[in-house]
Amino acid sequence: MDHPITVDSDACTRCGICIEICPMGIIAQDGPDDLPGLVPGGAAVCSRCGHCEAVCPAGAVSARYPACGPQHLPGGSAAIAPADLAAYLRARRTVRRYREECVDRETVEALLDVVRFAPSGMNGQPVHWLVVHDPAEVRRLAGLAIAWMREASRAGHPMADLFGVLVRTWDAGVDQICRGAPHLVIAHADAKNPMAYTDSIIALTWLEVAAPSFGLGTCWAGFFQMAASASPALAEALGLPEGHAPQYAMALGYPAYRFPRVPGREPVRVTWR
Ligand SMILES: Cc1cc2nc3c(=O)[nH]c(=O)nc-3n(C[C@H](O)[C@H](O)[C@H](O)COP(=O)(O)O)c2cc1C
Ligand code: SF4
Ligand code: SF4
């Protein structure tokens, strides 16, 4: 197996920080003046987290795996006052009414670029995205979800009563599946990856949190997801790569309304030991 990292002997000061920081404990040096490197067998267990490359004060470590290299953090810009962050997070709302205006692809790409930095189990980064950008296609997919609900209700699905309401509302011209959003973002991944669901939820959570900074709103599309994981017609319409499953979906667009207030929440429930 190729070594996932290389260390530049001239640049390395032998400070040992990379050895301390490696979460897998696979970087070592023979003596204090020797160049650090992976221990035998280390390449096989390296999680490709990039901590060694990110931490090295001398910039001596090069990770050889990612398609996109490391990025320098602009000084100070990663700091945010807790009160500012709290205000931002508290202002986030699920958006169920959208303007008709489309979000341009560059903005969606910039949003997804932020989400690339979300954590993932063992740094697997398993999430792929399907962005349904055409509003007419979003409606068509929502219609397929409704078609599945009609059938599922007739077949005695345990959620038949709720599906009945969604179907009747759809027939009356109201989309409660994708909430009339112009776009739908679907996180998909290898169906056999046991971490894919958790990682997809984390990535979508980041997307939801980052969206308002772009002036955008989101809505978790749970009813859509239910249909997408059960309806062969919807699965075919999504056209995901072979072996991939839709992990979760989220409606996206410009919010129609501004929310001047934050609703109450339960108090923090915490046990200290
Ligand atoms: C579901 C999940 C499980 C994780 N489990 C561990 C763990 O058991 N031990 C650990 O050191 N890191 C764990 N991590 C952290 C990941 O390894 C880490 O997110 C990844 O390497 C990317 O690095 P970052 O946190 O710097 O973004 C976990 C992350 C996730 C999302
Ligand atoms: S952190 Fe960088 S400079 Fe320090 S020992 Fe590791 S590679 Fe060398
Ligand atoms: S990429 Fe992560 S796991 Fe691999 S050697 Fe560097 S710090 Fe260790």
UniProtKB/TrEMBL annotation:
InterPro entries: 4Fe4S_Fe-S-bd, 4Fe4S_Fe_S_CS, Nitroreductase, Nitroreductase-like
Entry keyword set: Oxidoreductase
GO molecular-function terms, A-Z: oxidoreductase activity
Residue intervals of the 4Fe-4S ferredoxin-type domain: 3-32, 37-66
Family from the record: Belongs to the nitroreductase family.
PANTHER family per the UniProt record, alphabetical: NAD(P)H NITROREDUCTASE YDGI-RELATED (PTHR43673), NADH DEHYDROGENASE_NAD(P)H NITROREDUCTASE XCC3605-RELATED (PTHR43673:SF10)
Protein name: 4Fe-4S dicluster domain-containing protein
Organism: Methanofollis liminatans
